[in-house]
Amino acid sequence: NIFDFGMLKALRWASGAGCQAARGASSTGMARGMATTTGKPKTAVLMMNMGGPATPAETGPFLKRLFTDGDIIPLGPLQNILGNYIAKRRTPKVEAQYEMIGGSPIRKWTEHQGEEMCRLLDELRPESAPHKAYTAFRYAHPLADEALKEMDADGVERVIAFSQYPQWSCTTTGSSMNDLWQQLKELRMEERFQWSVIDRWPLHQGYLDAVVDRINTGLQEFDEEDRKKVLLLFSAHSLPMKVVAKGDHYVGEVAASVHAVMQRMAARVHATDFATTAVPKHVLAWQSKVGFLPWMVPKTSDALEALGKRNSRHVLVVPIAFTSDHVETLFEIGIEYAEEAADHGITHFKCTEGLNGSPIFARALADIVVTHLDSGELYSPQYKVKCLGCVKPLCRQIINPAVAPC
């Protein structure tokens, strides 16, 4: 699915330095529940992610929810006042970005992934079927309370809260989980569902294989004689350093994912089952910094500048912490970083497609759920390990945990 930027794309990417065009327009349908079977769902899978404005007009409310969330951008006692002010100031600029990419496609891809996952789950694990996926975004519709009400109306009893962030961070998965439990309390549904949690999966083999497959496809966009020259720039969403200093697990888990991807890629290269005959060099950098406080480094933009000074002319960006395309990949990487790369002399700049409609990734999601159900675990061993500097009493909880295997 290629999104046409029209004249903007032609002007900015005429040199061939641009990333693959934006993938997919956003879904406008209102249905949130996704299933391949009929009847009351025996097992619900709540797909949890940040979300994004499906239309530019939704940008203001999206940013307001984001900047007033103290888990992702802590602003202290003035969180609501400062958050609303920042959101209002940033809305026109960010709204234009979403307009350029036709709105965020993250809902479309989340719903597609949920449908494919449940279709496979019904085949792989009939004892817990029928399965049905629901979407719960943190900052855009459908929000957690909407998903809870829909599950209640469907008669759901058993739910798996499935974070769509492969790597844990208190600013992403942690925030979504905290909001989920808070919404349960506000709706007085604490006893309505039985819960378990899939809180991270940075080293799942299917996820890694899906990333490697996208890299293989991306390398094929370069001329065959140039593929040995390509450097892989893994780019992940950054974190404030004060979050890192508290012991947030994210940076370590992202690095572990990158290392594991490179190992699996090397095995395929050595087996001559890859687009290149040499294992590419790689670096890891961090994008999407907001504000003036220190964030994790090196920044992706700084990495591009440094690579240009080293005469790297062939760069393939791999958005390692994003499982579907959205504004950080389609606009920030696909447009802004493409322009910066060209300015720094990187003449062949491309980025891999998000995992989006990858059948390898859909099977990975299904396998993660099957493994989770078969294990009988309520959450990963790390879920209850709070950050060493955490002072929030309600983090890492689970309400009404499931008492029997599904």
Structural features, described:
The protein has 406 residues and is α/β, with parallel strands linked by helices. It is built from 12 helices and 9 strands. The protein has helices at 6-13, 59-67, 79-100, 106-124, 144-153, 173-186, 205-219, 241-245, 250-270, 300-309, 327-343, 359-375; strands at 34-35, 43-49, 131-137, 158-163, 194-198, 231-237, 281-287, 314-318, 348-351. The chain has a 5-stranded mixed β-sheet with strand order 1-3-2-4-5, sandwiched between helices. A 4-stranded parallel β-sheet has the order 7-6-8-9, with helices on both faces. Helix 6 (173-186) links the parallel strand 4 and strand 5 (194-198). Helix 2 (59-67) runs antiparallel to helix 3, helix 4 (106-124) crosses helix 12 and helix 7 (205-219) packs across helix 9 (250-270). It is globular, with a radius of gyration of 21 Å. Mean pLDDT is 91; it is low at 1-32.
